[in-house]
Write a structure and sequence with these properties.
Protein name: HD domain-containing protein
Number of strands: 7
Pfam family, one: HD
Strand order of the largest sheet: 3-7-4
InterPro entries: HD/PDEase_dom (IPR003607), HD_domain (IPR006674)
Helix content: 40-55%
Distance between the termini: 44 Å
Shape: flat
Oligomer: single chain
Length: about 270
């Protein structure tokens, strides 16, 4: 919301940005692995349902705003959402927020980059090629270095298997995923099911490392996420990959890594 506000987005687009992720379930995108949504978009599919069941429509109506006009067509909010590989508030927000939280970037770096963002014909772009190149490198720290870290990928896979089993055994219902992470874990722990107990033990106690094509226990792939920010150059928009050989190389390397996936090897069996 603050990024949209900073770039002059309307009140309606700020509302859309604020409520953009409210339909994410417990464990976020793990639900996509559980239910087989390769585009990782389950939260988008249930978005309207979640909004309708909430107090949001009434709250917006009291403010003189129509929730359907604002929330059911994100394509109109071009600062908030853009197709990859463009910048948008959603993509910038989760990258800076995550990497700052995990200590990979400083608050000063995040603020510096956000100050190089401008709106150009309603789209988020960068006014500095060096800042755009910095974000390319930073974004791949997120979607390759962090998302595809062997422990993270193993955790997602093992948790998805556990949740899938719990759904099959009616230990969990799909409605339970609208609860908090801790609530769902509590339901699993209290189920008394020996298989669930074993799967949770594996999830919490396994040590893993990156394997190879010839030596691995789990192979995982993830959604392709690439970035190529547009930069304002002499009142024209130019992809940073056309301005920076390093940015172009980083994207080529990221694409190759994502397409290959990650091979995970157990350090020890639990």
């Amino acid at each position: 919301m603050m990024l949209v506000n900073k770039l002059g987005g309307s009140l309606e687009e700020q509302v859309a940005a604020l409520l953009h992720d409210i339909s994410h379930t417990a464990f976020s995108h793990v639900i996509d692995y559980v239910l087989g949504y390769k585009e990782e978009n389950y939260h988008e599919i249930i978005y309207e349902q979640i909004v309708v069941r909430s107090s949001i429509p009434d709250t917006l109506q009291k403010a003189g705003l129509n929730w359907e006009d604002i929330l059911l067509d994100e394509s109109q909010w071009t600062l908030l959402e853009q197709s990859a590989p463009q910048l948008c508030a959603d993509r910038v927000d989760y990258t800076l927020r995550d990497l700052y939280a995990y200590g990979d970037i400083t608050l000063q770096e995040a603020q510096y980059f956000s100050n190089q963002l401008v709106a150009f014909d309603g789209q988020m772009v960068c006014n500095d090629p060096l800042a755009a190149e910095w974000f390319v490198n930073t974004y791949y720290k997120e979607v390759v270095g962090f998302f595809m870290d062997p422990l993270n990928m193993f955790g997602n896979d093992q948790l998805a298997k556990t949740l899938s089993f719990a759904l099959q055994k009616d230990i969990l219902s799909i409605e339970d995923f609208l609860k908090e992470d801790e609530d769902v874990i509590h339901l699993l722990e209290e189920s008394g099911d020996s298989s669930i107990t074993s799967m949770l033990h594996t999830l919490c106690n396994s040590k893993v490392e990156e394997g190879t094509l010839s030596c691995y226990d789990v192979h995982q792939t993830t959604k392709t996420r690439l970035i190529d920010p547009l930069v304002v150059v002499s009142s024209q928009l130019v992809p940073v990959s056309n301005l920076s050989a390093n940015a172009k190389m980083l994207t080529e390397q990221a694409k190759e890594t994502i397409e290959k996936g990650i091979y995970i090897k157990f350090c020890s069996k639990q």
